[in-house]
Every structure is written in C-alpha cells, then in structure tokens.
C-alpha cells in the first residue's frame, strides 16, 4: 500500500544536469562499461559558478581572487576546466599542489592552505605559490628553507582564528587551525625578522560554519589585523575569508520544513519511524521531551554560494557597524575566497546499480563511502533511471554493498515515486562537492567508483575518462 503522504526531499536540478539525466541510455551504457558506482563530473558548469561569485565582487566593487578549494573533489577534469577560467586554486596537500601545477595553474593562481609537511612547503616555496601559513612554526620553517636553499622571497598569508567578539557575545568555535588572533604581535615580530625570506600579503580565516555572524566577526578581526600589519610597515593587501558558502540542495523549502518537523515527531514516538533503528540525526526523546540538536546540513538553503557572499558583504561589521563590503572598499584591500562545495554546485552525480529489491530494502552496488551523504548529513532523494515500466511509488531503505550492518547509503527512509527494479540505476545528483570521492575507500576490495567527464560538444553529450579530459576537445573529424 503506497504511502499517501510521502516525505519527498526532491533535489534541485538545474537544466544542464537535468539534460544529462535525461540521457538514460548513455548513463546505462557508461555503468555497463565502467562499473557501479560511477562518478560523473560536468566541467562545463564550472564557469557559470565562478561568474556568479565574480558578479558579487562587481556589485561590491571589490577586487581579489576566487580560489577553488580542491579538496572538495579529486577530479582532474574539473581542475583542468577551472584552469581555463580566471579562478585560482586552494591546495591543501603536496599532491593537490602537484595536481594543480599539472592542470595548468601558474603559481600566481595557487594558494597553499592547511597544515603543511616539509615537502609541501618546499614545493610551494620552490614554485612561488602563496603560502597561507597555518602556524608560527610553519612560518619559521618556511623562512629557514628559503634562506638555506636561497629561494626567492615567498608570498605569505597568515591564517588567524579565535577572534574575540565585541559587544554582543557571539560564540566563536574553537579551531585547531590557524594562529590565535590574540598572538598577532608574535606573527608580526616573526615577519619583521624574516623580511628577506617572507613577503606578507595578507591575513586569512576559514570557519567551518554557515553562520554569518561568526564570519562577520572574523572578517572585521582580519581587517583590524591588516591595519596592525600596516602600522608595522608591512605592505599587506588582501584578506582571505576561506570557504563555506554552501549549496542549496533541495528544490522546495516546504518539503524540508515538513521533513524535519515529522522527524521530530518520529523521535518522540508520535508517528511511525522515518529512519533505520529510529536514528534521530542528533535528536532524542527524553521522557517525552525532544532534546539534542538536529545535526543535519540545512539541505534547503535559499541563500547560498555567491548569494551568501553577497549577504556577508552586506552585513554590518559588528563593531564599526558599517557593511563589511564598504569597509573593504574603503580600505582598498583585495578579497580572496576559497569556495569548494559552492563552486561545484550541480557539477556532478553518482550512479549506482540496483542489485536487489526486497520488501522495502533496496540493495545497491555501491557503499555509504561512495556517496557519503550521511557524514555531511545532507538529505536528498536519488532519481531512478529505469529502462522498463516503472513500479508503484514506495518507501525504501537504501543498503550498501559492504558486509556491514552500518553500511546504509542513508539512514533515512527514502520515498521514491517509482519502485526501482534490479538493474535500474539510482542517480544521486549534485554530489560533486565532497560526496563522490572524499571518503571513498576500497574496503572489502570493493572497487572505488571510476570517474568520467561528460561535456557538451556540437550539440551532443560526449564523455571521456576523467583523466583524459582537457578543455580542448578532439576535433569532430578526429573523434
Ligand atoms: C582552508 C579551507 N578553505 C576552504 C575550504 C572549503 O570549504 P567549502 O567547501 O565549505 O567552501 C575548506 C574546507 O574545509 C578549508 O579548510
């Protein structure tokens, strides 16, 4: 008996991604030939995402660079396509730096972030990329390396954390990254001491939160830090506000409202369970009272990506009470950003073959690590790509291919408008940012999904293995 009131979480799918999903025969052939799961990246969509951020820069009359946070996806195709735009890249490991150099980014468009080992620091210094230093120790090591190997002066930014709010107290999360903002004096002493080796260009923060009040405090704190740098004679020019602009995953905010309130009812035992073993996503029932915090990514986020940047720049600085964008404009500092997830909005999907459908259990040829929705707590329904007659609507649990109780693709019951059949594909859309390869492992010797780039050429969709993609496609007569 179909549920007459299904709790759909319909993903937001823009026309280009939709038209790829309409190519059912191509998608089936790809999975037949390359296996399940299969990761599809859509490099053509990147430029529009970069442009959306640029538009926000234009609206606020700001200069600076958009650096793609590479960690969000390992794809070569995406990186090579981005290299053909004006964007830069934020690399957080030695291998990411090598990848970026090989994809066509010159050192002036690369920023090395996060904690770095000596090899990473060395290649960054040797190639002359900007080093966004995570600690005082890193700056000291870098200066010593530059002196010892007689390298050119290295451009450095310093990541700060732990900004104090003035006036209204905003809780600032503890971070294990960056130098405490209160230790800026020590940073400046060090930079003065190593003038020959290090060229300070600015300060940075990255906050792992979507709450903009905390970010407004950090941005204002960075502007104050830049003034201190200038007072000490350092010619800094930019502030890097990291990533965390977010993505809107769902088409309909009302579905999200309904889903989350029904989940609360289910946790309280006032309706039938909506999750495997009554999982509450952080909520719990304590003697009939709802406790805990809903630990889910707010999948419906009408203000996200470039819109979020716009909102932050329009927000008043907590102490100076003027819009942060105007403060940046007045001081003529450049604004650098490092979006990962937001630049990959709509740029990829994961396909998985249905192995078995029994009662309400759908077993897939992929595991939870291949489509790591749960770790990030993002909820959205997969699409059924079927060649045959669709079955009736239903509610299902999606199980992975690992011999582990915990291997559920998602712990929630998923409502689908049709019953999938063995051999059908489920398409998890908008999964380029962190979902498709960030956590994938070869547990149980199950293969990691291959990656293909699907791109438009002469009015048709074409594909190639991710590593074969370059932004110059084979000429029509050659292919
Ligand atoms: C330093 C830094 N910059 C940028 C990002 C990208 O964040 P997002 O993908 O949320 O935009 C991260 C993510 O962890 C980060 O650590």
Short description:
This protein folds into 3 domains: 15-42 and 346-466, Lyase, Ornithine Decarboxylase, Chain A, domain 1 (Beta Barrel), CATH 2.40.37; 44-246 and 299-344, Alpha-Beta Barrel (TIM Barrel), CATH 3.20.20; 253-292, no CATH class. It has helices at 15-21, 24-34, 46-59, 76-83, 94-103, 118-127, 136-148, 184-193, 212-231, 253-267, 306-314, 324-331, 373-376, and strands at 38-41, 67-69, 88-91, 110-112, 130-133, 154-161, 179-180, 198-204, 238-240, 283-286, 289-292, 334-336, 348-358, 361-364, 383-385, 394-399, 414-416, 425-429, 450-457, 460-465. It contains 13 helices and 20 strands.
The N- and C-terminal alpha carbons lie at a distance of 51 Å
Shape: globular
Report the oligomer.
single chain
**Category from helices, strands and their pairing:** alpha/beta
Structural Rg: 24 Å
Give the % helix: 25-40%
CATH topology of the largest domain: TIM Barrel
CATH superfamily of the largest domain: Alanine racemase
């Amino acid at each position: 008996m179909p549920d007459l009131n299904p709790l759909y979480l319909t993903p937001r799918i823009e026309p280009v991604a939709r038209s790829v999903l309409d190519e059912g025969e191509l998608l089936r052939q790809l999975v037949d030939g390359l296996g399940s799961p299969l990761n599809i990246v859509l490099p053509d969509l990147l430029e529009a995402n970069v442009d959306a951020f640029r538009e926000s820069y234009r609206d606020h009359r700001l200069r600076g660079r958009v650096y793609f946070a590479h960690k969000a996806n390992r794809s070569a195709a995406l990186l090579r396509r981005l290299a053909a735009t004006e964007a830069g890249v934020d690399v957080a490991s030695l291998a990411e730096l090598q990848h970026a150099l090989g994809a066509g980014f010159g050192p002036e468009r690369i920023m090395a972030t996060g904690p770095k080992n000596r090899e990473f620091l060395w290649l960054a210094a040797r190639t002359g990329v900007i080093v966004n230093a995570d600690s005082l120790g890193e700056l000291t090591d870098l200066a010593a390396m530059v002196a010892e190997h007689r390298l050119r002066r290295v451009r450095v930014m310093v990541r700060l954390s732990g900004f104090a709010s003035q006036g209204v107290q905003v809780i600032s999360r503890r971070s294990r990254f960056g130098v405490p903002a209160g230790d800026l004096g020590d940073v400046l002493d060090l930079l003065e001491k190593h003038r020959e080796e290090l060229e300070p260009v600015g300060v940075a923060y990255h906050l792992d939160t979507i709450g903009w009040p905390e970010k407004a405090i950090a941005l204002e704190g960075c502007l104050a830090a830049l003034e201190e740098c200038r007072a000490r004679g350092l010619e800094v020019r930019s502030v890097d506000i990291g990533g965390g602009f977010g993505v809107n995953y769902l088409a309909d905010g009302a579905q999200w409202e309904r889903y989350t309130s029904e989940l609360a009812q289910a946790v309280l035992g006032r309706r039938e369970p909506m999750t495997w073993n009554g999982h509450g996503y952080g909520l719990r029932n304590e003697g009939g009272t709802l406790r805990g915090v809903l630990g889910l990514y707010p999948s419906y986020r009408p203000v996200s990506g470039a819109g979020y940047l716009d909102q932050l720049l329009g927000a008043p600085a907590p102490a100076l009470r003027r819009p942060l964008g105007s403060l940046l404009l007045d001081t003529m500092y450049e604004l650098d950003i490092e979006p990962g997830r937001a630049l990959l909005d709509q740029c990829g999907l994961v396909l998985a073959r249905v192995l078995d459908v029994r009662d309400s259990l759908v077993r897939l040829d992929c595991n939870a690590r291949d489509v790591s929705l749960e770790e990030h707590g993002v909820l959205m329904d997969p699409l059924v790509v079927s060649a045959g007659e669709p079955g009736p609507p239903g509610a299902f649990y999606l199980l992975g291919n690992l011999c582990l109780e915990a291997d559920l693709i998602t712990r929630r019951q998923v409502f689908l408008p049709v019953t999938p059949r063995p051999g059908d594909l489920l398409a998890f859309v908008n999964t380029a940012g962190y979902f498709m390869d960030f956590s994938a492992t070869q547990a149980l010797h199950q293969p990691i999904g291959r990656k293909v780039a699907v791109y438009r050429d002469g009015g048709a969709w074409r594909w190639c293995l991710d590593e074969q993609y370059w932004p110059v496609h084979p000429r029509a007569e050659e292919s």
